[in-house]
Amino acid sequence: xxxxxxxxxxxxxxxxxxxxxxxxxxxxxxxxxxxxxxxxxxxxxxxxxxxxxxxxxxxxxxxxxxxxxxxxxxxxxxxxxxxxxxxxxxxxxxxxxxxxxxxxxxxxxxxxxxxxxxxxxxxxxxxxxxxxxxxxxxxxxxxxxxxxxxxxxxxxxxxxxxxxxxxxxxxxxxxxxxxxxxxxxxxxxxxxxxxxxxxxxxxxxxxxxxxxxxxxxxxxxxxxxxxxxxxxxxxxxxxxxxxxxxxxxxxxxxxxxxxxxxxxxxxxxxxxxxxxxxxxxxxxxxxxxxxxxxxxxxxxxxxxxxxxxxxxxxxxxxxxxxxxxxxxxxxxxxxxxxxxxxxxxxxxxxxxxxxxxxxxxxxxxxxxxxxxxxxxxxxxxxxxxxxxxxxxxxxxxxxxxxxxxxxxxxxxxxxxxxxxxxxxxxxxxxxxxxxxxxxxxxxxxxxxxxxxxxxxxxxxxxxxxxxxxxxxxxxxxxxxxxxxxxxxxxxxxxxxxxxxxxxxxxxxxxxxxxxxxxxxxxxxxxxxxxxxxxxxxxxxxxxxxxxxxxxxxxxxxxxxxxxxxxxxxxxxxxxxxxxxx
Length: 581
Hints:
By secondary structure, the chain is α/β, with parallel strands linked by helices. It has 21 helices and 21 strands. Strands 13-14-16-17-18-19-20-21 form an 8-stranded mixed β-barrel, surrounded by 6 helices. Strands 2-1-5-4-3 form a 5-stranded antiparallel beta sheet, with helices on both faces. A 5-stranded mixed beta sheet has the order 7-8-6-11-12, with helices on both faces. The longest helix has 23 residues, at 314-336. This is Bifunctional diguanylate cyclase/phosphodiesterase. It comes from Massilia orientalis.
């Protein structure tokens, strides 16, 4: 007697298999198909070369050739042979149909396989979209600080620039910040410490950008964005502001917050930032132009002394273009020998009132441009510093001046200048091997080390430990060292003993009032006495009148320099000047 319950259950199972929303295939271990439901037929038919679905391995040969070997190598009596194997249909895909199949194969026993086939096209597309979103997010995020990066800022700015201007005059602002003297932190503490400092700066910027009362809508979604846009450069985008004044107040708050010390390696590190600001009404047509203009304003802030915010003005763009032209021409000048050296005499101020005209000279660089003529140093020295050309410029002056000095010794003998002063740059002093360069130049020209005086500005010598170390190395060679422009930098008379210098050059801002201001005479006198107590000599710079010369001579200043004695002279003119005296 037939068990109707079993028949009904079997028919229900068959109905389920045929109506299942996934493809089901039962096959032998050799791939011979025993059963497949309509869904599997629909999904696999595009892969059947001859329209036959008799063998699962043969159908999948082109898209999953490894499946036959995987099954043969599966030694267990039962288990999962493969699960979720993605099969790209490629040319076999019908238009609008499945593009990717997902295949799982289960070994039921020693003779049978059960395979499931599903359309994985939508799932693959979702995965690709998630990956694309993740990649876009990563491409817009700075890896170190996890802040938005330059691309994110440009995208945000472009969206904001595309909006219609607000009727009430409100708008948005971009602030571009660069760390002042960040390289010195890296050099002193290492790059890892520098990276931690950048993370702290980013965190402090975000913490400072609390929803301020100067926003039109403090809850606006696009109200603010803080980003890292370069090595030590950060940007802030502020939206929903009433005026540029509101942006400037936020800028001041940021600068104040960032000026506070950062804890690093158990010590407090002070790092200040220079900032350029562009208000939306002054912005160019594109996000790139706005970011460029903010960077230009930031450079102006650095040129003004740093640690401040300067708002962009159109004239800045013209100055930046001119500096770019000068930089390009200066690179060419170094190659085409357009640079030359002139020499300003440094005279001895003897107590008896006599003047020693052969005491020394200071080497100064000049540039004879083929179109502009002689370019004043004030127009190209700072450009050389900002563009990284100052090192090459300084080396040119050192080599040229030492060569001329050696020629003077041969031509004039005892009447030749006894000392050659050459200015140093931070770039030269940052080179570990630069003292060896000095030693080689001296040897090539037959000069004694004590005939060369290397001059460094007060602010550079007083602030940088690396520079002081390099100065000690130069002093060990036997050259003399001078502290230039004393009185304008960061050191003081009380710290003068800490600097490895032999000569103090008193800045012209003091000397020009030496004959009219008792205050300035006292400052000069104090400098001379402290220098003498330390075994240092002094030079008064910028002497232009006999009265000024008499005043500094009365304060026992050892040497003087200025237009009263001579303007800077080319080498042949210097020889004539020395001969007539």
